[in-house]
Amino acid sequence: MSVFSPDIIPPDWQRWSATRPSVIKPLTGGLTNRSFLLQAGGDQLVLRRNSAISAALDLNRVAEYQALLHADNAGLCAPLIYCDPEHQYLVTRFIDGGGWSKSGAGALPQLAQLLRGIHALPAIDAQLDIEDKAASYWCSIDNRADFYAPLRTLDKKVQRHIPAARELSAGICLCHNDLLATNLIAAADGNLYAIDWEYAAMGDPFYELALIVIEYALDQRQQQLLLAKYLDRPTTSVDWQRLDHWRVIYGYLSVLWYAVQWSRGSMRQPAIAGKITNTIRDVTELSFAIDG
Which is one GO molecular function term here (predicted)? Predict the structure, then answer.
């Protein structure tokens, strides 16, 4: 018998399971939603209850569903079981595996292969518009916060990088846009899968590459390996310029995301305020370095 609250299981569970599911345990690691490992008959499933502040985080659940259908068909994600029409929850099959590490043998080439697969998926009806995304975040940020003024200063510095990145763009494709360690599963079958596609949208693939470089703190050798394997050719100076501009833009959107979470009370801890301040400093320094 499950020791967890029955409220965790959606009341319309009959739509996706022949027997009433029970909760095995919560799944930790996600920053936005709550996820649970379920037992449903002979199957293990993952139930994801969507964040209560999805609107403030500018999440497009319809686009997520479209991306998941494509990714599922291509075998790049946890197999999709059910998507609630009201977009309150999502059910996928559980993938047996562990976390991905950049230091693993062949890890970066494997990640590059996953990226190539994602970026080759069919288009969806959503596009990552940097200005719109930032404007949406700003509407939910507390202007009384200590970090507000420095964040506004950073906003002005970032504005030149957006058109510069677009000038160098070679086109857009479907991107996951949130390939953090918690959203990658190195499965027991040897494959690498991406989960939590709620930020999926059409965009410049170098935004996704910039995210990986920053979030996994890749050194120059690792960046070179990732880029070369992803591009399937030697890197050029233009490639590095694109990456630099998108690193600034990603760092900026990332700090806005944390500022929204802090402002809405979801992550209102001193450590988060410190992370916001430190990220503002790091992105500002990167912007200055690119400007020379």
Answer: kinase activity
